[in-house]
Design a protein that fits this description.
The chain is α/β, with parallel strands linked by helices. The protein is built from eight helices and seven strands; from the N terminus they run αβαβαββαββααβαα. Strands 1, 2, 3, 4, 5, 6 and 7 form a seven-stranded mixed sheet that branches.
């Protein structure tokens, strides 16, 4: 039986996903990787001077910090952060319905960038990579925004939307770059980086 080439390379390593995101977990499963989910709590605060990818890179590394002392020699922990960048500002997760609707009104009819940074941490090293995807959202009506927020409650997503949900199907008119990056994990980059780490 033909075996997954990356999983074969990882046979002497233990992969740990330091994220509670069901989307990131599903991507790793669909990539055919064996891994364990291990969660650590961190306060996701970054220096206000940071811009764009510097924010997601900082936070991806910050999420890895609690793991460093306990990692075994063969373990690789993956932590990640996604930023929606629009008009010089980061749109984080919405706190409530009103904030989510305000974010979607801001993004409506315009391009924005989705930046996901992935941090790979071992006992002896750390590497962070990032992917940037440009996304164009059609002009959304107030009814469309209201329906989406009421039905899908997108409060766990940067920019208050999930491209894999209803709003992505009806509202995303153009995309330049990785689709999985917008969902929350640039799988092509994850694969490429893991190959380099274990080779």
């Amino acid at each position: 039986m033909t075996k997954n080439p990356l999983q074969q390379s990882l046979k002497d390593h233990k992969l740990i996903l330091g994220s509670g995101s069901p989307r990131r977990k599903r991507f790793l499963e669909e990539m055919g990787l064996d891994f364990e989910v291990r969660l650590k709590s961190v306060e996701e605060v970054y220096p206000k001077k940071l811009r764009g990818r510097k924010i997601s890179e900082y936070l991806a590394r910050l999420k890895a910090t609690p793991f460093k002392e306990e990692l075994q020699q063969n373990e690789i922990v993956i932590t990640s952060d996604t930023v929606v960048w629009h008009k010089g500002a980061s749109l984080a997760k919405a706190e409530n319905k009103e904030e989510a609707m305000k974010m979607l009104r801001t993004l409506s009819g315009d391009w924005h960038k989705v930046i996901t940074s992935v941090c790979f941490t071992t006992k002896d090293s750390q590497k962070t990579v990032s992917s940037v995807t440009k996304v164009k959202l059609k002009k959304l009506s107030e009814d469309e925004i209201q329906y989406y927020v009421d039905k899908y409650l997108p409060f766990d997503k940067a920019g208050a939307y999930g491209i894999q949900e209803w709003i992505g199907m009806i509202g995303i008119s153009k995309i330049k770059g990785s689709y999985t990056n917008v969902v929350g994990l640039p799988t092509h980059l994850l694969y490429k980086t893991l190959v380099k780490i274990v080779s």
